[in-house]
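Example (one chain per record):
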Amino acid sequence: RVEAGIRVKQLWLLGGAIRRDSVRLSPPSGFNSTNKDSAFVPRGELAATGATVAIRGHVWKLIQADAQAIRWSDTTGFYRPRYQTRSELFVKSNMLQRFPSGDLGLMASVIHEYRSGTNFPIGNDVVAVPGYRTISWLVEVRILRATVSWQFRNVLGERYRQVPGLLMPRQTNFYGVRWTFYN
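Predicted structure:
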């Protein structure tokens, strides 16, 4: 993997290339051919190269971005999409003007993920899973060393599959508390 970037004020613009040598690909764990209910099989695949781009850093005032994309040069690869992106816009602040101790932190983000169709070898056939996109959000409030978080995935309730035969949940909420303890 090779990557280079240029910094424009507080924003990084990155580009690069990734190469994978020829390899024998195994099915995703839990779906391999040792499972008697699975027809997924290992397959050999030729070398592949991809182009990567990313944008990271402050966009405007408190708004930050973390966006990345990859485009593989071939369209017939197994177990991976040709295009894959993840973009996140977020606001993160400790509000030091109001709370100079730094004991309060807020973070809110919107996340967009996209994957193009993916090919899976099943027996002697190839099954294509169509591409999908999801939108999610994340809200976190930190007080001292405790962080309360709420993540809402797949806000639009899209029905999609990452693996043939496995329908992903429409909408999922994750919430909880992280607490750091140390002496």
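Caption: The chain has no helices and 15 strands.
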